[in-house]
Amino acid sequence: MPDKTTQPSMDQFIETLAPLHIYPLWKQEGLLIRRPTTEAVPYLWPYGPVRERLMEAGRLISAEEAERRVLILKNPGLNGKPAATARLYAGLQLVLPHEIAPAHYHSASAIRFVVEGSGAFTAVDGERLIMQPGDLVLTPAWSVHDHGNETDTPMIWLDGLDLPLVNGLECSFFQPLDTKAQKLTRSDDESERQYAYGQLRPSWVNWTKNYSPLAKYPWNATERILLDALKDGVAGSPTDGILFEYSNPITGGSVLPTMACYAQLLPPKFHSDAHRHTTSAVYHVVRGSGTTIMDGQRIEWNERDTFALPGWAVHEHINNASEPAMLFSFTDDPALKALGFYQEQSENKQG
Ligand SMILES: [Fe+2]
Ligand SMILES: [Fe+2]
Predict the structure, then answer these.
(1) How many angstroms separate the alpha carbon of residue 260 from the centre of ligand 1?
(2) Relative to the alpha carbon of 177, which ligand is closest?
(3) Domain 43-178+204-347 coded CATH 3.40.50.2300
(4) What is the CA(322)–ligand 2 centre distance, in A?
(5) Are 95 and 63 in contact (CB under 8 A)?
């Protein structure tokens, strides 16, 4: 029988553990959490004032000096972390006329959604993608990419990356290319001509990479699909209206292994059902105006604004106008689904 008078108390016992870097599980907090929690908050970045500061940055630093002239959209709940949600990075990038943003590559995957300007390019793995407002451009992990603007007007786009996820997993590599611009090995927009028709696939290409071979999804085709669905009276999803996922034409799955992209139309006088999911999202307003209620907070959005939906936040979308509203969004769906962490649940409407 141990002598209780000589047994150390629990506190004294725990003190003896520190030098050994061990700790009792029964005292540890925040390890097995009952439901997803995040420091990220629902938040909207209005386009006007952000654009103004971006143009000011254009007077202060060149795209080449900055490597990328971007204003990062930092979620105010994330204590200064360069992230819009816990797993998604977003930023607005400006490339002025006759500038280049030099070639580099990294283990993070990226998407670009063009906000304004016309005719600048992103070059990806030897192919130049000529960008128009609303176009979605992919720069997948490890693809060499540079940006250039040979037009006379500024070009602004939304950057979306999986950086918080990649850095959280401690898997980030970054490498500048030894030349400013990469060697072009394909004709401009070649992948668009090869794959954009969807139902036809080039039989001579043996595509084995884990991302879409289609590097650019032009807005004119996307918008036509959304408006045709509206005209056809498609009801779509009760929680999202007419929501299409940009898909990999080979697999039908998401465009990148870590991020999915969506184009969405909210019909006039539409009020969605509410739901929540473990995935987080960044939305960009392409057309119209409306409201998204997230965890009871009403976010009023207008054209070109960007807003963040934290994971597991209850949300619903409202379009009270007589015109359709269109949203672009990117999410961390594929990463969470691949790991078996996707959960979704219906909720009561908040507004
Ligand atoms: Fe990059
Ligand atoms: Fe949702």
Answers:
(1) 18
(2) 1
(3) no
(4) 23
(5) yes
